[in-house]
Write a structure and sequence with these properties.
about 70 residues; mainly alpha; 3 helices
């Protein structure tokens, strides 16, 4: 039963990966806007820049893991 539920949360295709990355990106930009309101000036802009960079790194890892599990080079 647990295996059937776990399969629902497994990213199997690149399309699913792109949807997850899109959601992460939208959340990161929203968090970045909050940082800019909380910390006006250069500090807020630096924190805003860190949010999408984290999504880029996670997105690359997600796409790579989908390719590896499918057996693509």
């Amino acid at each position: 039963m647990f295996a059937r539920v776990a399969r629902l949360f497994t990213i199997k295709t690149k399309f699913e990966a792109f949807l997850v990355i899109y959601g992460l990106g939208m959340g990161a930009v929203e968090r970045g806007f909050h940082y800019m309101q909380l910390y006006p000036g250069v500090g807020g802009k630096l924190l805003f820049a860190c949010c999408p960079v984290a999504v880029f790194m996670a997105g690359g890892r997600i796409l790579h893991s989908v390719e590896v599990t499918r057996g693509a080079p």
